[in-house]
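Justification of resources, computational component.

The compute hours requested in this renewal are based largely on the per-chain cost of generating structure records like the one below. Each record pairs the submitted sequence with a full structure-token output. That output is archived, and it is also reused by downstream analysis tasks.
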Amino acid sequence: MRKALFIRGGGLMLIGMLLMSCATTSSTAPPEETTTSPPSAATGALQPMPEKDQDARRQYEIERNRFIYEDIFFAKNKFQLDEQARALLSWKADWLQAHPDVTVVIEGHCSEGGRAEDNMALGLRRAGEVKGFLLHQGVARERLTAVSYGSERPLALGEGEEVQAKNRRVRLTIVEP
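The structure output for this chain reads:
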């Protein structure tokens, strides 16, 4: 019983000390600081974003998500781009041209099966094919890095062609500054 009272008393003491430190901190501010006008952009406070800027930001986020999450898919044991892949990559190249500050990692992936070294090589060929296409579209080389994960990072797990087809892909990941 005494131990419980001691613990409660200690907790109350801590709370009291915190309240006193907060009161001390706020009372040391000069009077002119406590009577200033509402915060503005000059003082670093957040201001509401104008509606047209909000719309532009929303549009950017929608396009950015499409850029990241729409993968380029490949046939089994192939690295050549088909027409669907070329159409999507054309859009991605245009998006990169419109956002010159964005750099990307081009990730090559493979389905399970085969030797690990062969899958790494095929993933790199797929990433290289996508990089070559983007370079041909005018995207600067220093903005593009191609890597292979082989079959190490599957998107889908399980058996069957439908599942494995989801893993034969290239994903473009934006490098955050």
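Helices lie at 2-27, 31-34, 51-69, 83-98, 116-136, 161-165. The CA atoms of residues 74 and 168 lie 6 Å apart.
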